[in-house]
Amino acid sequence: MKQELLHILRDVFKSAGYSVNESSRCDLIAEKDGYNTIIKFGSDPDMSDLRLFADQVLEGIGLYVSTTDVNADVKFYGENLGLIIWDRDEVALHIGRAVIADIEGTAGKLELVRAPSSYSNEYSCEPSESRSFSDVFRGTTVSTRDSAISSYRSVASASPFAQVVVPAHAVNSVRLELQAAPLKLTKDRAAVMGKPHVQTVQAVVLKLVPFWRYSYSLKVEKKYKSKIIDISGEGVGYLNALNGNISNIAINEISDVLDLPDNDYELKTQIITHAQAKDSIINMLIDEHTKDLRFDDTKGEAIISEHKRFKPAVEDINLQIDLIYVPIWEVKGPRNSVELNAHTSEVLTHPVDDDVEFI
């Protein structure tokens, strides 16, 4: 599979105007406008794989292409080392874009990987001293990059999952005492992921969106004639505190503090109160655990059918609710926007805020 994918991506980069060559220390080197992209292929990489690859990227930028999905923590680790990570879905997305561009005759204008400096020129208004942590790693000089990696490793050596700890000299970070999901997707990476959805990135905005997190359990036994009807269940879910919708947003962990790269963020105020959330969740759980059953009985030669509905009462449900915040990147284009879960890097299919226009 690797050789087939290698051949396809070589053609994709060539059609986009890149000069592509093989290398003894990686799989491919793609050059365009004097800028090198070092390309490595792999499957299900871990942190040590990405660190080893990052050490081999002495100039330009490293692109790690995985034929499988990449663990969110591993992906975040690689991005903080200055790498671009294409997992299975992103590979398919870029190949599809290249095919369409080739059909339209615009493949030569396709930008598969851009120099990091072009991102800030396009949408960022931050001064150079407020660059993101990943920008520090993406310098083109060996001495700057090595110094940045050395600083990162001195902090991360205690734990391989210490990615959210950022050197003080790299950014003006902000710590909020807020029960929230940790931010793991960088602003630069959000811009790269959002660009195919909006075409031209005009702004990337960080929003802290409130959700009512609920956990519940119930165990009820209803008796009908000689039968026992068991109604039981348990689970965890999230209700959007802005629009009242039950959300399938992915959250892997919650902490009592939230570390942000800078103070450029919007803290959304909840609209749905605790009482409203509780009523909505209770009604939903009652509907979900209501059972409509049919009972057949024979009297003589006749078959008599009965339909009965069994549902839990409000007092049968043990419900816990608390308010948490989820960081969301909104990537804005000239006509529409796309939102990304800044905790898991997931592209959201439904807006979390009524102000967002999805197409």
Task: Write out key terms for the chains shown.
359 residues; alpha+beta; Trna Endonuclease, Chain: A, domain 1; six-stranded mixed sheet; five-stranded mixed sheet; 9 helices; 15 strands
Overall spatial form: elongated
Provide the low-confidence segments as ranges: 115-171
Q: What value does the average pLDDT take?
A: 78
Multimerization status: single chain
Structural class: alpha+beta
Query: If you compute it from the alpha carbons, what radius of gyration comes out, rounded to the nearest whole angstrom?
Result: 26 Å
Helix amount: 25-40%
DSSP strand tally = 15
Give the H and E element order: HEEEHEHEHHHHEHEEEEEHEEEE
The profile of the biggest β sheet is: 6 strands, mixed
The percent range for strand residues is: 25-35%
- What is the helix tally? 9
Number of domains: 2
N- to C-terminal distance: 34 Å
Question: Could you give the topology of this structure?
Answer:
Elements: H1 2-15, E1 19-21, E2 28-32, E3 35-42, H2 47-56, E4 61-66, H3 72-80, E5 84-86, H4 88-104, H5 116-123, H6 133-137, H7 142-156, E6 174-176, H8 187-198, E7 203-224, E8 227-240, E9 246-247, E10 258-260, E11 266-267, H9 274-288, E12 291-299, E13 302-310, E14 318-332, E15 337-341
